[in-house]
């Protein structure tokens, strides 16, 4: 790593308390260069000097740029349609067979809440209210989690939702929309770093981790995907972002059920055992 860039990263880490070593260097450089472009700096040296003078404010802006939280309700739409039309009915049938009404989902890297609220809406629309539904929603960014708990969004963030769905799940306020209280009750928001911490819980039926791993190194991806494997029930689903791929070494752990929607299903080791020994 170039020395000035290293000094810059150390300075930002020290001031913000955020461990930047978990991000790829190429990614960090791109995000830093974005801030430099906005401010009109040509070199890391100039930017570092500016950071030292402007301290906290610019460090905060840079951290926000690094942990970008771009998202929206039903982002990309079709994975959510697949979730409603294929995944949820399949899970519901399995659960009915064993007399269970428990549904457990995890939105890992939930940003400001749009994804977990979308998951809750899809589930209620597809299966109705007779289920014991809990959705864990985690992110590394505390500011985002505060917004998520508030559940207040501008109209533009709801553009993928039909008007009747907005009426059913949101209260209109003067300058935006607030998620109705009954919907919030299904979701537990929690600060969690996917790259350093253990899974928040276990026995999930579905894990969404969309547009998060793009920022991780291959080694971090392996750690995170292994955690997801451990945290899923046998046959549980993992849904990743459309431009993402699973790291190497998971072919015998996940089967791809929709390449287009990037949906994977956990292969249980027990069933592998059975296949090998029968
Ligand atoms: C682009 S958003 C994706 C939001 C949503 N999943 C979606 O697909 O629209 C990426 C999110 O990942 C979070 N994130 C980045 N690094 C993380 C980490 N190490 N652990 C947990 N969340 C992380 C960011 O804070 C951000 O909210």
TrEMBL record:
Query: Please, which domain of life does this record's source organism belong to?
Result: Archaea
Q: Molecular function terms in GO for this entry?
A: protein-glutamate O-methyltransferase activity
The CheR-type methyltransferase domain extends over 1-267
* EC number(s) stated in the UniProt entry for this protein: 2.1.1.80
Keywords from the named record: Methyltransferase, S-adenosyl-L-methionine, Transferase
The answer to whether the entry has keyword Glycoprotein is no
**Which InterPro entries does UniProt cross-reference here?**
Bact_Chemotaxis_MeTrfase, Chemotaxis_MeTrfase_CheR, CheR_C, CheR_MeTrfase, CheR_N, CheR_N_sf, SAM-dependent_MTases_sf
Catalytic class of the enzyme: transferase
Entry keyword Methyltransferase: yes
One short Pfam name that applies is CheR_N
Cross-referenced Gene3D superfamilies: Chemotaxis receptor methyltransferase CheR, N-terminal domain, Vaccinia Virus protein VP39
Please write the reaction equations for the catalytic activity of this protein: L-glutamyl-[protein] + S-adenosyl-L-methionine = [protein]-L-glutamate 5-O-methyl ester + S-adenosyl-L-homocysteine
The record's listing under PROSITE patterns reads:
CHER
Protein name stated in the entry = protein-glutamate O-methyltransferase
């Amino acid at each position: 790593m170039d020395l000035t860039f290293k000094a810059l990263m150390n300075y930002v880490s020290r001031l913000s308390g955020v461990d930047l070593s978990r991000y790829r260097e190429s990614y960090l450089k791109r995000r830093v260069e974005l801030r430099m472009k906005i401010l009109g700096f040509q070199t890391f040296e100039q930017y570092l000097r500016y950071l030292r003078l402007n301290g906290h404010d610019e460090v905060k802006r840079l951290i926000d740029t690094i942990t970008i939280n771009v998202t929206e309700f039903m982002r990309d739409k079709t994975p959510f349609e697949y979730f409603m039309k294929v995944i949820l009915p399949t899970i519901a049938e399995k659960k009915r067979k064993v007399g269970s009404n428990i549904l457990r989902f995890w939105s890992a890297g939930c940003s400001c809440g749009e994804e977990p609220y979308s998951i809750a809406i899809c589930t209620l629309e597809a299966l109705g209210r007779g289920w014991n539904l809990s959705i864990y929603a985690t992110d590394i960014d505390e500011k985002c989690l505060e917004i998520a708990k508030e559940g207040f969004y501008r109209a533009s963030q709801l553009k993928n939702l039909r008007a009747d769905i907005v009426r059913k799940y949101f209260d209109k306020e003067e300058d935006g929309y607030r998620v109705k209280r009954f919907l919030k009750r299904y979701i537990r928001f929690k600060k969690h770093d996917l790259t350093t911490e253990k899974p928040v819980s276990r026995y999930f039926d579905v894990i969404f981790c969309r547009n998060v791993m793009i920022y991780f190194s291959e080694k971090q991806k392996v750690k995170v995907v292994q955690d997801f494997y451990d945290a899923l029930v046998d046959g549980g689903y993992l849904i990743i972002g459309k431009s993402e791929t699973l790291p190497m070494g998971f072919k015998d752990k996940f089967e791809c059920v929709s390449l287009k929607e990037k949906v994977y299903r956990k292969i249980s080791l027990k069933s592998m055992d059975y296949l090998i020994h029968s």
